[in-house]
Known about the structure:
Elements: H1 3-16, H2 24-38, H3 48-69, H4 90-98, H5 102-105
Amino acid sequence: MNAKDWQAIEQAREVLGLGDLVTLAEIKRAYHRLSKQHHPDTAKTASVQSGEQMYRITAAYELLMRYCNDYRFPLKREEGQSEGLDPYDPEDWWQARFGQDPLWSGKKNR
């Protein structure tokens, strides 16, 4: 991810009022809480401003959910894998998530 992507994620985090480390459930709770508060159909004072705020909230939620969907973990143990071992070697884990990023993979962007 480049600096522009990280800036968008930071803005989305601020729109939803989230901390630095959050879970998927916390993102969803923040979205639902703010949706109830700002949705034009349920807001106490419906206005154009509440519609615009709802648009920003939804866009932030969708961005964070797309970001979270990029990280996948195995839910089933592979054959021959013992119970106490991590399913990923640390090197494999890093490459699976950041291997395409030229900054972290060691590849130069041309």
